[in-house]
Design goal:
The complex is a heterodimer of chains A (406) and B (279). Helix content of chain A is 42%, strand content 17%. Chain A is built from 16 helices and 14 strands. Chain A has a 6-stranded mixed beta sheet, sandwiched between helices. In chain A, helix 4 packs across helix 9 and helix 5 packs parallel to helix 7. The model of chain A has no long low-confidence stretch (mean pLDDT 95). The C terminus of chain B is likely disordered. Chain B is built from 12 helices and 9 strands. Chain B has a 9-stranded parallel beta sheet. In chain B, helix 2 packs across helix 4 and helix 2 runs parallel beside helix 12. By secondary structure, chain B is of the alpha/beta class. Chain B has a single domain, classed as Aldolase class I (TIM Barrel, Alpha-Beta Barrel). The chains are: A alpha/beta (406), B alpha/beta (279). At the A-B interface, strand 2, helix 1, helix 8, strand 11 and strand 12 of A face helix 3, helix 5 and strand 6 of B. Chain B: The alpha subunit is responsible for the aldol cleavage of indoleglycerol phosphate to indole and glyceraldehyde 3-phosphate. Chain B: It catalyses: (1S,2R)-1-C-(indol-3-yl)glycerol 3-phosphate + L-serine = D-glyceraldehyde 3-phosphate + L-tryptophan + H2O. Chain B: Pathway: Amino-acid biosynthesis; L-tryptophan biosynthesis; L-tryptophan from chorismate: step 5/5. Chain B: Its EC number is 4.2.1.20.
């Protein structure tokens, strides 16, 4: 029943209970259950409604700026001397990351549902900015929960959200990071059940969020597939993307899951190394558990208490992972590997110099894996990496580590 | 199977009064103090004990219970120790029902079968697991019922008449009505609304209905006790504990007695209520 090996297709999940094998589900308080069911009903209707699709396509094209380019990184390819490297350039989207793809979709749902207030959680602030952006565009009040620690280290994004009219709540409970921000957003939702739409930023949380966010992000993989076929006449040999909660990765991966010859690699934050406590590699070093509405791989202790993660990149600093990734790991369809802070930082600098692109620290992790793999591959082989965010937000973090006063 | 919970509510029904259900966090501020608090509860007038299992990410709880959980975890509390707390309490009291309340992950990691066996061994009568709605019954609810442990479900203001039968199915022991949409420790808006909701649930079930979330004073306990079969007080007790701790968060000589004093006051309120005539 919970078959996790060799299914006919890797693209049919989740089932009606919101499960991907043993992962996913709806582990929420009763107060939220009717809201989640209502959301699922509306989502099912919206998916089948051509008008919803048309409005989403229109916003993707004219507001976000889709399709994002598929860029052949010629100098990086030459430098590494192996496989051809392409970047799916979602960092060129409005607001600077893939997060907007999901926010545009969910704000349309919120509108259909007659909700009048938007709440969101954010780690690095990219999802907070994207949420505040669509809330401004559609005229909704927006409140963003952000760990107090993250508020400090991501000051430019906090100011962006405020400019966009959002209210930012620094969360001091717990340890003041993304997981605590998500707890606090859930507490807000359970309190304001009638008017509030909870705009979750990653492909995690209770069903139907993982499936819904994946669907909105899958535009990345669908475009990538078409672009590859147009440019190279075939699908790539390998896909690489960073995974924090996992939304950019599942967006790129999902349309390719049934292409057996496409090797797929997800890159987790190895932080300062997996032998210590300072990392965020929930798939490589965690175990299955239940948090934030779903069963998935988590960083936790032997008593089931959730641990704090660490990454140089605030966007990967979450002790869980979307449930579909947990399932893809256990079914061996996707390989998940860790990349250390230092490796990501080197990759960040390399790309900046070689291609004139400043990547965010999140895709810098994916890039570090590209740097490891490409030289071992043939020159006729192709890697597509999701360049899911731009690095403007990270220059302060990087400057500090490099000892530069900004 | 009749549990201590069933026996207790039958007895109270015969007495014509509602139950005082008291919540505290296991291991807050430390194991020994917590055990003394638990031992003091029945004598102070608590009819049913809700024993909190600390969790790092209590998403349905307000600041008071979050902090209590953090204090307990910092003092080394674990699910295993929370079960020991119940077992130690049972050495001196074999009648007062104990309901464990918390979140699923520590139980999942402990292992459901092993947890149920150890919980029964420790003298646990019921479970309230906040993040297990009826849609997830196969996880713990059905195994618990099979093992003879009551599974107490939360019904909330968002649980409408269409959904209520689903929530009540597989519920045993009592029904826990959450007085408002919100987290623990928020303020109850209107006790008359709560009483209407209790009547609505009672029209769907013969199980006792207890009301919690936001009950802080003896007067509120009395007002809600007019329709409910039980009144749950949690945050107020947890706050009382917190207020007696020293600057380092350690228990003082006042801790246990001040909780007992508060519970005696609440018990007076509950005992002043009269059950609505049953049909």
């Amino acid at each position: 029943m919970n078959q996790t090996t060799n299914p006919n297709s890797f693209r049919t999940g989740p089932d009606e209970q919101g499960m991907f094998g043993i992962f996913g589900g709806r582990f929420v308080a009763e107060t939220l259950m009717p809201l989640i069911l209502e959301l699922e009903e509306e989502w099912t209707r919206a998916k089948a409604d051509p008008a919803f699709r048309a409005e989403l396509d229109h916003l993707n094209a004219h507001y976000t700026g889709r399709p994002s380019p598929m860029y052949f990184a010629e100098r990086l390819t030459e430098h590494l001397g192996g496989a051809k490297i392409y970047f799916k350039r979602d960092e060129l989207n409005h607001t600077g990351s893939h997060k907007i793809n999901n926010c545009v979709g969910q704000i349309l749902l919120a509108k259909r549902m007659g909700k009048t207030r938007i709440i969101a959680e954010t780690g690095a602030g990219q999802h907070g900015v994207a949420s505040a952006t669509v809330a401004a565009r559609f005229g909704y009040p927006c409140e963003v929960y952000m760990g107090a620690t993250d508020v400090q280290r991501q000051a430019p994004n906090v100011f962006r959200m405020k400019l966009l009219g959002a209210k930012v709540h620094p969360v001091t409970s717990g340890h003041g990071t993304l997981k605590d921000a998500m707890n606090e957003a859930l507490r807000d939702w359970v309190t304001n059940v009638d008017d509030t739409y909870y705009l979750i930023g990653t492909a995690a949380g209770p069903h139907p969020y993982p499936e819904m966010v994946r669907t909105f992000q899958s535009v990345i993989g669908q475009e990538a597939r078409e672009q590859m076929i147009a440019m190279e006449g075939r699908v790539p040999d390998m896909l690489i993307a960073a995974v924090g909660g996992g939304s950019n990765a599942i967006g790129l991966f999902h349309p390719f899951l049934d292409d057996k010859d496409v090797q797929i690699v997800g890159v987790e934050a190895g932080g300062k190394g997996l032998d210590g406590e300072e990392h965020c590699a929930s798939l490589t070093a965690g175990s299955p558990g239940v948090l934030h509405g779903n069963r998935t791989y988590l960083l936790q202790d032997g008593d089931g208490q959730i641990k704090e993660g660490h990454s140089i990149s605030a966007g990967l600093d979450y002790p869980g992972i979307g449930p579909e990734h947990s399932w893809l790991k256990e079914s061996n369809r996707v390989e998940y590997v860790p990349i250390m802070d230092t490796e990501a930082l080197e990759a960040f600098q390399l790309l900046t110099r070689l291609e004139g692109i400043i990547p965010a620290l999140e895709p810098s992790h994916a890039l570090a894996e590209v740097i490891k793999r490409a030289p071992k591959m043939g020159k006729d082989q192709i890697i597509v990496m999701n360049l899911c965010g731009r690095g403007d937000k990270d220059i302060f973090t990087v400057g500090k580590i490099l000892g530069v006063e900004l | 199977m009749t549990t201590r919970i069933d026996t207790r509510f039958e007895k109270l029904k015969a007495e014509g009064r509602p139950a005082l259900v008291t919540y505290f966090m296991g291991g807050d501020p430390d194991y020994d103090t917590s055990l003394k608090i638990m031992q003091a509860l029945p004598g102070a007038g608590s009819d049913v004990i809700e024993l909190g299992m600390p969790f790092s990410d209590p998403m349905a709880d307000g600041p008071a219970i979050q902090m209590a959980g953090q204090r307990a975890l910092k003092a080394g509390q674990s699910l295993k120790k929370t079960l020991s707390l119940a077992a130690d309490f049972r050495k001196g009291d074999n009648e007062t029902p104990i309901v464990l309340m918390g979140y699923y992950n520590p139980i999942y990691i402990y292992g459901v079968e092993r947890f149920l066996a150890d919980a029964i061994e420790a003298g646990i009568d019921g479970l309230i697991v906040v993040d297990l709605p009826p849609e997830m019954d196969e996880e713990l609810c059905l195994p618990a019922l099979k093992a003879g442990v009551n599974f107490i479900r939360l019904a909330t203001p968002t649980t409408d008449d269409k959904r209520l039968p689903l929530v009540l199915s597989n519920t045993s022991g009592f029904v826990y009505y959450v007085s408002m949409t919100g987290i623990t420790g928020s303020a109850i808006a209107d006790t008359s609304k709560v009483n209407q909701a209790v009547d609505r649930i009672k029209s769907h079930t013969d199980l006792p209905v207890c009301v919690g979330f936001g009950v802080k004073t003896a007067e509120q306990a009395r007002a809600i006790g007019q329709s409910a079969d039980g009144v749950v007080v949690g945050t107020a007790i947890v706050n009382q504990i917190a207020n007696t701790l020293d600057a380092k968060g350690a228990a003082t000589s006042d801790t246990v007695e001040s909780v007992a004093t508060m519970v005696r006051g609440l018990a007076t309120g509950v005992r002043a209520a009269r059950l609505a005539p049953t049909q």
